[in-house]
Design a protein that fits this description.
The protein is 48% helix and 12% strand. With 1529 residues, the chain is α/β, with parallel strands linked by helices. Helix 31 crosses helix 32 and helix 49 packs antiparallel against helix 50. The protein is elongated.
């Protein structure tokens, strides 16, 4: 059992280990889950008592007593084991046996197969170098003691001639050469020995050359001086190799023989292998008695592979220079001979001095610091985060903190209360931004997610500076405490802070903790070390830097008791001055510290972008003109091939790809045709004037088609002409817009004269783009910036399965990037493929190969590739199971991934395999399978993740590993059951989001998917290709897994009613509604269940072929009425929801009512022709009338059916009014519901529904004189004249039919409407019909005069609050003043108009709720024309007809950019009114110089200075709007 190992005390247990132990002693699962949720780890377990368990956890006495008893037994036994060392071996063997017998979770599988894990570790390319790195003393010079070396320990580094007696050293791996034939091996060995010996002898220095020891310059990936050893089959080969001395030295070869000792063979022990290896060492002792006065010339031996012969190079003089052996230049040789006497004198003095006591030897602290900071690599990892813990720094030390300024400091735990005034914080803030926090700031509220908490504190964006013991310059409650008070009041906050950092925010291996101790240590600092070491399970990622030995002794005495003095010393740097640390660490930082970032400026120059400013604009990834120039040469040499290969294997392009190509380190990235198109569009935007300050270019690309690469390529090439940035989509449009404005104006003198900002936005919803545009436009307007060129260009890059179709929609804005290559592109791809295949194997560049094949006919290629990669894989292993899980996600969820931290938790490796984090994933895969994965690193958090290299590969993996027997539905169920993955803290929110998307996110063409689906693609696959029952089981599993998520219950209900299992659908819809009673989309699904049920019952009745009777349709009627009831409830909730506008309930109610009316009218009881129809109408509209034939059968429904007519009319009225405000398609919110209900043409729906409604209730009489007012209204509705919006719909259909209908409608009203007693709706409809007919047929005799309509409108309620929005809108039209009016008439009219507008605005605010205006755009019905009377009203349809002949894309662009308003046809139609702008507000002058503010239709068209303007007037349900605002010249 993981938690029960004797070498791991209870104190160090994690929450998972506590849960495992609780299960082993028989505690019930609900209690275990509760304790796990409350984060009870080992330390917490030790503090529990029975009372606490009973009161806080509601635990019964039995289990509470059991836990406490078993815990005490366990802790007592562990104490005894510590004391009784004699039984330790036996105890370990017993525990090992227990481990092998336990099978509870993936971690147990690892314990059962410890040998396998060891083999995996051993098989890794460089794992042990990373894991141990223990220093090793070299064999004493020129002695031959019986010693051994341990593999992977590290010898002291190579050196030059220090004092001529202490040997200089040189390391050679000889790993490859040791496998050669004897001749080649002898030559290689002799050459290296002779070369090294000559150098040592010529400078008179002792030396040792070690073979089987790694040199980091030649052996990448190994620690310098790492002992590996070489196999030695025959020692004589190495001894005999020295026979080449005589041939290499033309003279004095006997001297060399005397100075070069015979090879010594030191055995290398490898605990994990039985293979025998040696380090072969040769000592060089150039005694003065032998070498005095000599300069040795040598001919180095070599083996010529082309001739297959041994050859000798020309004679040369060699010397040791630093750590290398180099030839003496010819120009220096005379001087070299001249100084022989000096070197002899030095040697003589050194030989005499060696008999005296040597100097004290100090530990190489510099090298140790380098190794600790780089984890054995050449440079500090670019993506590594650092947590700094420090106390008060000396003033002199603050001048040497440049090494800190160039590191990724995640947070600082600062115990200096004056740090912000005079300490490290004040110095750091001169160069970086940091957010000031306290320990209490990290007390995360229970309802706050980790992601929300990170966003709130801006973690990962800016350094978090945590004052741990007061802050002297802060007025809040942050007081300095003494040690006792701090322990009592703040230690618990510190524990929570450290736990949050280590267990929830930063996965193990992604960060290091540095304790920078520059003043005397106090207890709070030691408590901090304790918390970090406990949560990080040791000191492996903790470094202590302490200049004072006295301070360190206290540190060591505290930590040494837990981890041992050697462990503490190994992770500590003691005695180095801060200036030395600064200089040492700056050499190994991956970026050059002195690089200054620059941005392009309006005057074609450059300006500085300080790091601090860049960090303030944290929502944008800013691309500077000298981007990546800070990259060090060492980093380029080490990483350039990996960066290039990662890209061609399918990884996302990085700025380094472009930079390396630009600097000629690698070949350039291919520029596709779309790149040229986008650049041309950008140039056009820069040259042509536009009304909008925000322009947009849309890139639509096939998935995997390279759209993102093209977009970034454009930014890279334009970074010196524009200001370029990539938007980080995790930030709101408001924040992004604010930062974009800041970037535009950075270091520019005049806000009117700035370069445009090019913003790349990837894979976001259209709504986000619209919001961003709107906010940017408002920002430019508020700053009164007037520019004929765009201030911002938004480059939107989105996935799309039909990019070419998008081009046709808007060729002036849209660019496509498809899998299909042009002739030019084919040539470039073919040439590049040839180059890459010479450099890499095809499987290393799979994605590029697929691209070059245009993704056509590649199924066989992909299948063959996957077959080769999976050959020999163990299909039953946990690694293969994990591979299947990743493949499942990558097949169905775009851009999905799983963190490496999840993988380690899944296999239980994080606890048991120490210091192996980086290679753990790779070492667990067999070699070919590694090529299946792409390794990702989050740009913000640097957390590492993995995904399959391409979705097609993922799909093929599923196909081959699952075969025909296993089902994807079962695999998904297994994935949901993996609680270790689901509960893993790091990256949990992303993982859960991917799981939910896998099961519940439908395909949407609008999001770039291939089609619109009813369910998620996986569920669609399972229900169609496997079994519907399995799809249901899978969703039920998800419902339970995600705490009975209402949206999964909703989907289950939909899946059931799709299969016509309505009873089950009803139950699940009720569950969803009970979980989320205030979500209108969930409630709509409940109504949909009954709507579909009603439709199914109708189909059954129809299929039976029997006459419909009240008896056999009763069940269907009941279902329909229930559906209407639920839709009405949905409507009520939807209207109350403040931030959504869900109209579906109203449309669905009308649909059901239409179906129900059709059913009722078809009954046998009402089948007697006109008489039956009249009977039916009388039943539905007369309260007390019930026909005897249906009385009993429909007894429960009579009351509800008699309300049907009114309820349907109310719903139609609501739809009409809603469409008066906003006319667009009605669709369910894609993220909140999965309802497939979409009303694509709501105006036509309203017209058809109102016509059917009127047709049913109009009766059979066609003589208006004999009809009742109710019947007349129904006839009018039948003709399309019953609702404000449906009347104006007549203007959009065939004119002849529209005129005929409207004339008929008007003929149905009384001859003298002024004397008729109209209801408000009747007046609205009558006036609307007159206006509509006048638009279609001006000067028609049937149309009432404007004056008569004005008089009639006075019948509207005097109290404007009682007027409908339609009535108020009509009053603004009818009473808009005319030029022919007298001043008094104008005054009266304008008063009526302004009063109506005031109440229109009130109604609009109620209607719009808290929804941003850009999400519900107002509809302009009419414009003010040049005519008089009703002729002055020009309908929108007539305005749009001006551009009707243009292609749709061009039409949109012309209206959007305002060009359409300039057309002469509009000038003839519309009246241009005069006004002015004042402080950004548009005013219209009324009678007697009264001024009225008019809302602009398009804010950016408003001039920023106070100007006289002209504009066209439009009329909306929010009041008049100003269009085409033009400054008077």
């Amino acid at each position: 059992m993981a938690a029960d190992t004797p070498d791991q005390s209870v104190n160090n247990w994690t929450e998972s280990q506590v849960s495992t132990w609780l299960r082993s002693i028989g505690v019930k699962e609900p209690y275990i889950v509760k304790l796990h949720e409350e984060e009870v780890d080992g330390r917490s377990l030790l503090e529990l008592d029975e009372d606490f368990l009973k009161t806080k956890f509601g635990m019964k006495l039995g289990p509470a007593n059991l836990i406490i008893k078993k815990r005490n037994e366990l802790t007592n036994s562990q104490e005894k084991e510590k004391l009784g060392s004699g039984n330790k071996v036996e105890s370990k063997q017993k525990n090992k046996k227990q481990k092998q017998e336990t099978k509870q979770d993936p971690s147990q599988e690892v314990l059962q197969n410890e040998d396998n894990v060891s083999k995996e570790i051993q098989g890794a390319s460089i794992p042990t170098a990373v894991t141990e790195r223990e220093d090793c003393k070299a064999r004493p010079f020129d002695q031959d003691p019986d010693i051994i070396y341990v593999k992977h320990r590290v010898l002291q580094p190579e050196s030059g001639a220090f004092n001529l007696i202490n040997p200089c050293r040189e390391f050679k791996s000889l790993v490859t050469a040791s496998t050669l034939d004897n001749t080649r091996l002898r030559v290689k060995f002799a050459r290296e020995v002779v070369k090294f010996a000559t150098g040592c002898m010529n400078i008179r220095s002792n030396g040792t050359i070690h073979f089987g020891v790694m040199d980091s310059r030649e052996d990448e990936g190994y620690v310098h001086g790492e002992i590996i050893g070489i196999p030695v089959k025959d020692k004589d080969i190495y001894v005999d190799s020295l026979d080449y001395i005589e041939k290499c030295f033309p003279v004095d070869s006997e001297h060399v023989r005397q100075c070069v000792r015979s090879p010594r063979f030191v055995e290398v022990m490898d605990p994990k292998s039985a293979e025998k290896r040696y380090v072969v060492e040769v000592d060089i002792v150039p005694s003065l008695s032998i070498v005095r006065g000599k300069v040795y010339k040598v001919r180095l031996v070599k083996f010529n592979e082309s001739t297959n012969k041994i050859e000798y190079e020309k004679v040369n003089i060699l010397q040791r220079v630093g750590a290398k052996t180099q030839p003496v230049p010819e120009t220096d040789q005379s001087d070299f001979f001249y100084r022989v006497k000096d070197r002899d004198a030095q040697r003589e003095e050194a030989e005499k001095a060696q008999f005296w006591n040597g100097p004290e030897i100090y530990q190489d602290q510099g090298r140790k610091l380098l190794m600790l900071m780089t984890s054995g690599k050449k440079l500090i990892e670019k993506e590594k985060w650092f947590i700094l813990v420090t106390n008060k720094m000396k003033p002199d030390d603050l001048y040497h903190i440049d090494w800190l300024l160039n590191m990724n400091i995640f947070c600082v735990l600062d115990f200096d209360p004056d740090s912000n005034k005079s300490g490290l914080c004040s110095k750091y803030l001169q160069h970086h931004n940091a957010n000031m926090h306290s320990l209490q700031s990290y007390n995360i509220p229970r309802e706050t997610s980790i992601k929300e908490f990170i966003g709130k504190l801006h973690l990962f964006d800016q350094t978090s500076w945590i004052f741990c013991n007061g802050r002297s310059d802060f007025k809040g409650s942050e007081d300095l405490c003494d040690e006792i008070t701090w322990t009592n009041t703040k230690r618990s906050f510190l524990r929570e802070t450290v736990s949050l950092l280590c267990k929830y925010i930063l996965p193990k291996g992604t960060f290091q903790v540095i304790f920078l101790i520059t003043s005397p240590i106090k207890k709070p600092l030691l408590h901090t070390l304790y918390e970090f070491s406990a949560d990080m399970q040791g000191l492996e990622d903790i470094i202590c830097i302490c200049e004072s030995q006295e301070n360190f002794h206290k540190w060591q005495s505290f930590v040494g008791g837990s981890y041992g003095a050697e462990t503490v010393n190994n992770c500590s740097i003691v005695g180095m001055k801060m200036s030395h640390i600064d200089a040492t660490l700056q050499q190994i930082q991956p970026v050059n510290a002195d690089t200054i970032k620059h941005l392009a400026t309006f005057e074609k120059g450059k300006c500085r972008l300080e790091t601090k400013t860049k960090e303030q604009i944290y929502s944008l990834e800013i691309l500077t003109t000298n981007h990546c120039d800070e990259t060090s040469e060492e980093f380029v040499k080490a990483e350039k091939e990996n960066i290039e290969q990662q890209f061609y294997q399918g990884g996302k392009v990085t700025w380094l790809n472009f930079w390396l190509a630009e600097q000629k380190f690698v070949v350039n990235v291919i520029k596709r045709d779309a790149y040229t198109e986008i650049c041309k569009l950008l140039d056009d935007l820069k040259c042509n004037s536009t009304q909008s300050p925000v322009s947009r270019i849309n890139i639509y690309h096939h998935p995997g088609g390279g759209g993102s690469t093209v977009a970034r390529q454009v930014l890279w090439e334009k970074r010196k002409d524009l200001r370029c940035a990539v938007v980080k989509p995790s930030y709101s449009a408001e924040v992004v817009a604010q930062h974009a404005v800041q970037l535009r104006q950075h270091d520019e003198k005049d806000p009117q004269r700035c370069l445009p900002v090019l913003l790349l936005v990837e894979d976001v919803e259209q709504e986000y783009l619209d919001d961003l545009r709107k906010i940017l436009e408002e920002a430019i307007c508020n700053k009164k910036i007037r520019s004929e060129k765009p201030c911002f260009i938004v480059l939107s890059c989105r996935r799309c399965n039909d990019p070419e179709k998008k081009i046709k929609e808007s060729p002036l804005e849209n660019v496509s990037v498809t899998h299909k290559l042009s002739t030019k592109e084919k040539r470039m791809f073919a040439a590049r493929r040839k180059v890459l295949e010479e450099k890499y194997q095809p499987e290393f560049i799979l994605t590029f190969v697929l691209m070059s094949e245009e993704f056509e006919n590649v199924a066989a290629y992909v299948a063959n590739f996957v077959t080769n990669m999976l050959r020999g894989i163990d299909c039953t292993s946990t690694v293969t199971r994990f591979l299947l899980y990743v493949a499942l996600l990558n097949t169905y969820v775009q851009n999905s991934f799983i963190s490496k931290s999840h993988y380690e938790a899944f296999r239980g490796l994080s606890t048991y395999v120490k210091r192996l984090r980086n290679p753990v994933f790779e070492t667990s895969l067999h070699e070919p399978a590694k090529l299946l994965f792409l390794h990702l690193r989050d740009d913000k958090t640097h957390i590492e993740s993995i995904k399959i290299i391409h979705p097609r590969v993922a799909e093929e993996i599923l196909k081959q590993l699952l075969g025909d027997q296993e089902k994807q539905g079962n695999l998904a169920k297994d994935l949901l059951a993996e609680k270790v993955l689901l509960d893993h803290r790091f990256g949990r929110e992303e993982y859960v989001a991917f799981l939910k998307a896998l099961l519940n996110r439908r395909s949407r063409i609008s999001r770039g998917d291939e089609n619109n689906s009813l369910f998620s693609p996986l569920i669609e696959h399972v229900r169609k290709n496997e079994t519907p029952e399995l799809a249901i089981e899978l969703l039920k599993e998800a419902y339970s897994c995600f705490q009975e998520d209402a949206f999964f219950a909703q989907t289950i209900a939909r899946l059931y009613y799709s299969s016509e299992k309505f009873e089950e659908a009803k139950d699940w819809a009720e569950k969803a509604a009970n979980k989320m009673p205030n979500n209108s989309y969930i409630l709509d699904t409940r109504g949909q269940v009954y709507k579909r049920w009603f439709e199914a019952k109708l189909r059954v009745i129809q299929s039976e072929g029997k006459p419909k009777t009240a008896q056999n349709t009763a069940a269907a009627v009941d279902t329909a009425l229930t559906a209407i009831e639920y839709f009405k409830h949905c409507q009520k909730v939807a209207v109350a929801e403040p931030e959504t506008m869900n109209r579906l309930g109203f449309f669905s109610e009308v649909e059901v009512a239409r179906g129900l009316l059709k059913l009722i009218s078809s009954l046998k009881e009402f089948a007697d022709g006109d008489k039956g129809h009249l009977e039916c109408d009388k039943y539905l509209t007369t309260p007390d009338y019930i026909p005897a034939k249906i009385k009993d059968a429909w007894e429960p429904f009579h009351y509800r059916l008699k309300n049907l007519q009114k309820e349907m009319n109310d719903a139609l009225e609501w739809i009409s009014e809603d469409l008066s405000y906003f006319q667009k398609d009605v669709i369910a919110h894609e993220e909140e519901t999965t309802s497939e209900e979409v009303v694509k043409n709501p105006l036509r729906f309203l017209a058809e529904a109102s016509s059917q409604y009127g047709k049913h209730f109009r009766g059979v009489s066609s003589n208006p004189s004999t009809c009742s007012p109710f019947t007349t209204r129904m006839i009018i509705r039948d003709l399309g004249g019953g609702y404000f919006t449906s009347i104006f719909y007549k203007l959009t259909i065939q004119q002849e039919q529209g005129v005929k209908d409207l004339q008929t409608i008007l003929s149905l009203y009384p001859r003298n409407p002024m004397t008729a007693k109209f209801q408000q709706n009747d007046i609205v409809n009558y006036i609307t019909a007159n206006i509509a007919l006048n638009c279609l047929l001006p000067q028609s005799k049937e149309v009432a005069s404007l004056q008569n309509l004005q008089v009639l409108s006075h019948q509207f309620p005097p109290d404007k609050q009682k007027c409908s929005p339609s009535a108020l809108f009509l009053q603004t039209l009818l009473f808009w003043p005319e030029d022919s009016d007298t001043e008094d008439e104008k005054i009266k009219k304008i008063d009526i108009v302004m009063s109506s507008i005031e109440y229109l605005k009130r109604d609009y605010r109620t209607k719009i709720k808290d929804i941003p205006p850009q999400k519900a755009k107002l509809y302009t019905h009419f414009y003010l024309g040049n005519g008089n009377g009703l002729d002055k009203l020009v309908h929108k349809s007539k305005i749009e007809s001006v551009t009707k002949t243009l292609p749709l894309s061009e039409k949109r662009m012309k209206w959007f950019h305002g060009e359409a308003w300039k057309r002469p046809e509009l000038a003839q139609m519309l009246r241009s009114v005069s006004g002015w702008t004042e402080d950004g507000v548009v005013y219209l002058e009324g009678p007697r110089k009264r001024k009225f503010s008019i809302q602009p239709l398009y804010w950016p068209s408003v001039p920023y200075s106070n100007e006289n303007v002209t504009f066209y007037l439009g009329f909306t349900f929010k009041g008049p709007v100003a269009c085409n605002i033009t400054v008077k010249k």
